[in-house]
Amino acid sequence: AMDDIELWEAEAGDSIPVEWEEEEDYITLNLDDDALDDEFGVAAHRRRYMKREPVKRGGAKISSRDQILQRYKYMQVRIQDRHGHTFFVSRKVNAVDPSLPTYVRIPPIPIPRAWVKHIRPLILGAETTPCNVISGVLLPTTEPKWARRIDTDVTLDFDFTIFERTFQCVYMDPPLLLPDEQPKPGYFNISQLTAIPVHKMLVPGAFLFTWCEKELLPDMCEIAEKEWGLKYVENFCWVRHQTNNHIAKLPSNYFRRSKVTLLIFRREGDLEMRHQRSPDSVFDFVKPRMAGDLNDRKPDFAYTAIETLLPRALCSAELPDPNRLVQLWMPADSHRTHWTTIIQKAISD
Questions:
Q1: 3-state SS of 226-247?
Q2: Which of 23, 85, 92 is closest to 51 using CA atoms?
Q3: What's the angle, vertex CA 208, arms to CA 204 and CA 213, rounded to 5?
Q4: Whole-angstrom Cα distance, residue 282 to residue 299?
């Protein structure tokens, strides 16, 4: 689109006096964009006109109208397909010099997720667990604060009656067998998931977050609604990325399996929540499995979403007992601040 001055120049054509020429303020001041921003803040450039002596230039003169029309020039390209059919395609002519520098303004800290993928923190904060990088996986080297870890041989056989009904969230990643998949150590059929008394662990208004492959979505919803009395409210999606930045393509009956869904259910009742504008999907890399891992390691963004949604579930000096958030079937090194983690012992093949 052309502004008022450009329209005036186009309509006037050659009648514009040669001695009048447009100039930008920053050219006269010999300042670049960054210097102007530091001095005056971010502002739109103002136009002004100054009188100059006519300058004789060699060659054919191009009027202002022609210069503007050149910006919207299109050229026709003739192409032919493999069947011999000829087509004419209109292609816009780029009048911008590609050798000119391009300026990109990076957003201030914290940089949004739409711009960058955070691999690891640059500065470890006071409440951040020190980590070592092993095969691309962050492993804690010290026990997190306000956390409880419980080891068990088989999570399905664990005595959940030791817990009172205090949890605001149950977060789990059960190692489920897919339909028609052969039995293997550590995995079980989804019908056995009813052994977990989720409904007896949640306070009114509390949530269940559970990862589920697409083949098992109907069964998981049926168990949550009929067996545990929960209501489906939302879902979150992890799109698996390979290290070459391509989307993963695991085998499946109809489409390839490239994502896994985090189903979110809720119990009837009221609970203080903090609504957020987090996305309902995340693109993250498939991390290498460590010894004892039955499932792919899920993105840490799920913890961020849960802990943001339920601020009253977090521990503090006044409420140090981590009895409001519990996670099941997570990797052995996934115990973290504010959480009770039930760790199933590694099963050898």
A1: HHCCCEEEEEEEEEEECCCCCE
A2: 23
A3: 160
A4: 8
C-alpha 109 chain-centroid distance: 16
Residue whose structure tokens are 């998981």: 220
Burial 314-323 (b: 16+ CB within 10 A, else e): bbeeeeeebb
Exposed e or buried b per residue across 189-209, where buried means at least 16 C-beta atoms within 10 angstroms of its C-beta: ebeebeebebbebbbeebbbb
- At 307, the amino acid letter reads E
- How does DSSP classify residue 223? I
Residue 282, pLDDT above cutoff 70: yes
Among 278, 244, 245, smallest CA distance to 262 is for 278
List all residues 6 or more positions away from 166 whose beta carbon is below 8 Å from its beta carbon: 203, 323, 324
d(CA 229, CA 224): 6
Output 22 or 333, whichever has higher pLDDT. Answer: 333
Angle CA 34–40–46, to nearest 5: 90
Q: Is the peptide bond before 197 cis (omega within 30 degrees of 0)?
A: no
Backbone φ and ψ for 29, nearest 5 degrees, come out as: -80, -10
Q: Record the pTM.
A: 0.65
- pLDDT exceeds 60 at position 179: yes
Mean pLDDT of 181-208: 94
Query: Which token pair is 64?
Result: 């202002």
**Residue closest to 258 by CA, chosen among 291, 228, 281:** 281
Tell me the average pLDDT across 94-101.
71
Backbone angles phi, psi at 99, to 5 degrees: -80, -10
Is beta strand 131-134 parallel, antiparallel or unpaired with respect to 137-140?
Answer: antiparallel
pLDDT over 90 at 329, yes or no: yes
d(CA 349, CA 331): 17
Non-local (6+) Cβ contacts of 307 within 8 A are: 313, 314, 325, 338
Q: Give Cα 222 to chain centroid, integer Å.
A: 29
Tokens of 140: 């804690």
